[in-house]
Amino acid sequence: MSNSPESTPGVLVVEDDEHIAHVLRFMLERQQYRVEVVTDGRSAQEAIMHGPRPDLLLMDVMLPYVDGFELVRVARARAGWEDVPIVMLTAKTLEQDIVRALDAGANDYVLKPFQPNELLARVRRYVRAR
Fold it and tell me: Domains in the chain, start-ordered, CATH in brackets?
């Protein structure tokens, strides 16, 4: 999923809620992003360990099997993924959860329910900065 002049930026979405995953795919594809969606922590871990490097990782915190905090650590430990922007998208609103995600290596933390245009602006900012 690497970003090159002849390709569009790729986003790996990790979201277990089918409706939210569908909305995210729709929003991102309308903005010309290539989108891969995985729906649980185990599939996300597999995608991070063996899949192509995305231009952005957008993921939930609360996931079946492996949570988002652990997935941030996995992504940051994989060679070549150290600087992939990671935006957490979650309903977990406690300050300790936000701090935990940022300390683990996430770049940003967006609360659900999210505002679509705000989320897209954050995605653009991180993809453009690469």
Answer: 10-128 (3.40.50.2300)
